[in-house]
Amino acid sequence: MKKKLIILMLISFSLLSAEMLNYDKVLSNLKGIKYYKNGEYDKAGEAFEDNAIQHPNDPRLQFNQGNAQYKNGNLEEAENSYNMALKNPDFKDKSLAHQNLGNVKFQQKDYKNAIKHYRDALIQNPDNLDARYNYELAARMLQKQQQQQQNQQQQQQNDDKKENEDQQKQQQQQQDQQKKDEEKKDQQQQQKKEENKDQQPQEEQKTEKQKAEEKKKEDAEKILKALLQKEKEEMKKEKQKMNVDKAKEGKYW
């Protein structure tokens, strides 16, 4: 494909060999073509551009400038130069200009407009076999591009569908897990209630036992206190009795 497009560009220069009134313009154009054929596209572009600026009404110079711009990768500038050349009704190489415009659109993968320009090139010159070849090639590329776009759309739809299914599945899993967590929480709460029921009688029994022990301890303390008091009183009585006995005997020591 690239080889075919390069051949088209090499044969599509507009020569000015018949120009007899302006030698500088002819020589500058030949200089640009020489640079171009040597692969020096930057120098070719400068030569064609200077010539086109000095002679803006010559569509052949704009056409050649477009060729150099195309080779330098400046496709939009090349398109503008070809269109400017085509606006001139005296321009004779309209078939080649449309052919090269088709090449620009082909490089931009704009196959619809590439086909349009190749068709216009054939209308201008039905014997332009290169334009016919590129027309058929662009038509196949357009068909392939449309098929790729259709496949991409289908793939995108499949991806979207799978993404939705995955999201729904994830949501369902989250809901199931949430339900399990709630059931587990309810079970734990119920189990805790049952445990509290079992613990309550034990605590009540423990409290009754503590009360009984405390009561028993209080009773024991009361008995002990009463015994102590009784012992004190008996000792007091015994002491008083001893004092009385001593007084009777006349002894005070």
Topology (SSEs and partners):
Layout (H helix, E strand, L loop, with lengths): L1 H9 L12 H15 L3 H14 L4 H13 L3 H13 L6 H14 L3 H14 L4 H121 L4
Structural summary, described in words:
With about 250 residues, this protein is an all-alpha fold. The chain is built from eight helices and no strands.
Query: Number of helix segments?
Result: 8
The class by helix and strand makeup works out as mainly alpha
pLDDT < 50 stretches: 5-11
Spatial separation of the terminal alpha carbons? 153 Å
Helix fraction, binned, reads: over 70%
Number of DSSP strand runs: 0
Shape estimate: rod-shaped
Mean pLDDT: 87
Major beta sheet, specifics? none
User: Topology as H/E string?
Assistant: HHHHHHHH
Radius of gyration from the alpha-carbon trace, in angstroms: 58 Å
